[in-house]
Amino acid sequence: MDPSALADAPRLVSRARRVADPEFHAVFEAIETPRVVWGAPGESTVVGGGAAATLTASGPDRFASIRESAQTLFASGDVHAGTEAARPRLFGGFAFHEAATDGSPWKSFPEARFVFPRVQVTAADNGTWVTVNAVGPDADAADVERRLDEAVGTFGGLGVAGRGHVERDPDPRPDRPGIVSRRRTTTREEWRAGVEAAVDRIRAGDLEKVVLAQALAADLRADAPRAATVDRLRNRYPNCYPFLVETDPAGAAFVGATPERLVSTRGRTVETDALAGTTGRGETPAEDEWLASELAADRKNAHEHDLVVDAIRDQLAPFAASITAGERRIKRLAEVQHLHTPITAELETNTHVLELVEALHPTPAVGGLPPAAALETIRETEPFDRGWYAAPVGWIDAAGNGTFAVGIRSAVLEPRAATLFAGVGIVADSDADEEWDEIQLKYRPILNELEDGD
Ligand SMILES: C=C(O[C@@H]1C=C(C(=O)O)C=C[C@H]1O)C(=O)O
């Protein structure tokens, strides 16, 4: 690296210590804002608070720009984590489109934004770790050690009966806020017209697949309780990726539990998933099985799915020494079942996770094919801004490893309001009304957190 870049780099100090396991909900309430939450099957759950540094970028170079800023930030590290789980990480995400995201509810979400938290609480297999970070010319190890002592006092055993420093709330999971009114971005007639126009384009041959989405704005009786919402999502969807990203200063939060991983890297090993093709859940185990086998045998869904597998292979090919697609299987969630193909690759050389994010986003699971025609169709058809919906959300570490999920099954929470997003893959023989029903199912994970039974 250029030595002058190192001299210009901000100083980063990070220290970590193990604490008695605290309770998720209590950590979330005690940590400073803006907060981030990240979870993934097989990964530790992280709650981050505050911003020791914030990286933002826009336009088509937003992936490269964040990658460079991240490398500069981590280049100056005085880091003592003690264990891999506690290493400091950047958390954030990108906008789906490269055009500005200044429309409601995305006003406070730049086209790329990553936060390096001041405090990171990581619940890992080897215990819970508190990491304290500082960045800047004045970042000082003694100061960070003092803050770490304080943070260990605050978070160690927090909210766990008998060990806690605060009394556990008798009901740490407050009720759902309740929905006062709902507005769809798209009427059923508009939806039919949009899907039929897309199908015409596909039959005319200039498009193979496009994912069309809708948004649902809800006015709430009260603020959605963020800790309870993300805690319930992570428990109800254990094979998914729960996330929450708060922004400054507007206080909005992008929240969800997505079943879809975009990519994770560890050294030269890459894991990703093709997830596309959907059916509902049955009332009984037998009906569940029947629906799953019908999905597995369905030609339309297989086509929708195979396009994604092939595109991921093509997009990884320039980087990979080998690519292996596993057997196609069913990913079963609380409300839907998907066709799922796990894909692994070995890279030719060490590659920053954001290079792969840039190469893969958007896969035809949320964009379409060919990509340019699909993105044009999305822009022409959807009367709202996707913002961070269906875009990469995840983390990066100093080594350039990371995991990114695709921000679906998601919503933006604002004071007494929420905006939900859901989309479906359209191919030549898609039926607009069936796709409409699938969108309603995909709103369910978040709607369940908002509706209070009225
Ligand atoms: C776009 C969404 O989901 C995507 C579309 C799917 C489909 O059309 O079958 C399945 C999983 C996701 O790749 C969403 O949930 O909003």
UniProtKB/TrEMBL annotation:
Residues 164-176 have a biased composition (Basic and acidic residues). It catalyses: chorismate = isochorismate. InterPro entries: ADC_synthase, Chorismate_C, IsoChor_synthase. It comes from the Archaea. It is an enzyme of class 5 (isomerase). Keywords: Isomerase. GO terms for biological process: L-tryptophan biosynthetic process. Residues 188-442 form the Chorismate-utilising enzyme C-terminal domain. Residues 159-185 are annotated as: Disordered. Its EC number is 5.4.4.2. GO terms for molecular function: isochorismate synthase activity. Belongs to the isochorismate synthase family. This is isochorismate synthase. The lineage of its organism: Archaea, Methanobacteriati, Methanobacteriota, Stenosarchaea group, Halobacteria.
